[in-house]
């Protein structure tokens, strides 16, 4: 997968990330650990800035533990902080249909959590593009690469399952829904006539992600003439 580079970062920072030279903090996530640098982390991430300040002078001042995501997502976050790049191809992630969609779905909430709005927006755009492509393939506007639509639906199912496991709260009004959550709802509405004929997907909605089913159902219940869909915007800092 090609990486996206942000010009403000320097190659020397990535060398420090890989080699750990002059490290003054250990960042741990699951069974992984990185020898890193407080000044770089604190200056580029709101979350790290707060944690490092709060722990200053304490017994754990040289250790930061990440708990909100797994090691692979944490590494994407750290690589972005150091090099401004999003590289997933080196990770031990499943390949095949939907791998890119699934990974960006995992990274988006982590980017928001760590205070990286540019990365969060990048993930949002990638999810939007991937869902549009899958929708076009399901409708027959683009070839599926074999004619079988089941793998496409399965790919979206994996991404929705992962995201709603994280963002599982009931939202009373569609206008209050998060941007990434809205992308999945818009996708489902766009190709609903296809999805509703897929028995496995309908069972998945009812049994595994009932809040997603509520979100989709709510879009059909809006009073005529009222559009409550959240507008996609270039910032997710709120």
Automatic annotation (TrEMBL):
Origin organism lineage: Eukaryota, Fungi, Dikarya, Ascomycota, Pezizomycotina
Record domain BTB: where: 23-90
Range of residues in the leader sequence: none
One Pfam short name: BTB
Organism: Dichotomopilus funicola
Protein's UniProt name: BTB/POZ protein
CDD domains attached to this UniProt entry: BTB_POZ_ZBTB_KLHL-like
């Amino acid at each position: 997968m090609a990486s996206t580079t942000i010009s403000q970062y320097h190659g020397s920072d990535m060398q420090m990330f890989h080699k750990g030279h002059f490290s003054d903090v250990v960042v741990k996530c699951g069974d992984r650990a990185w020898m890193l640098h407080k000044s770089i982390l604190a200056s580029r991430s709101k979350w790290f800035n707060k944690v490092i300040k709060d722990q200053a002078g304490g017994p754990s001042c040289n250790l930061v533990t990440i708990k909100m995501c797994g090691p692979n997502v944490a590494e994407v976050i750290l690589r972005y902080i150091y090099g401004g790049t999003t590289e997933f191809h080196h990770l031990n992630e499943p390949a095949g249909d939907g791998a890119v969609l699934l990974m960006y779905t995992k990274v988006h909430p982590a980017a928001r959590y760590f205070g990286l709005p540019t990365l969060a927006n990048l993930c949002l755009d990638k999810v939007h593009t991937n869902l549009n492509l899958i929708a076009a393939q399901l409708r027959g506007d683009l070839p599926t690469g074999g004619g079988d639509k089941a793998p496409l639906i399965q790919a979206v199912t994996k991404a929705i399952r992962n995201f709603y496991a994280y963002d599982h709260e009931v939202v009373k009004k569609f206008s209050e829904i998060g941007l990434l959550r809205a992308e999945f709802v818009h996708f489902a509405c766009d190709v609903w006539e296809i999805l509703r004929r897929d028995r496995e997907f309908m069972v998945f909605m009812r049994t595994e992600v009932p809040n997603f089913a509520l979100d989709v159902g709510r879009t059909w219940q809006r009073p005529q003439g009222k559009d409550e869909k959240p507008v996609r915007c270039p910032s997710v800092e709120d």
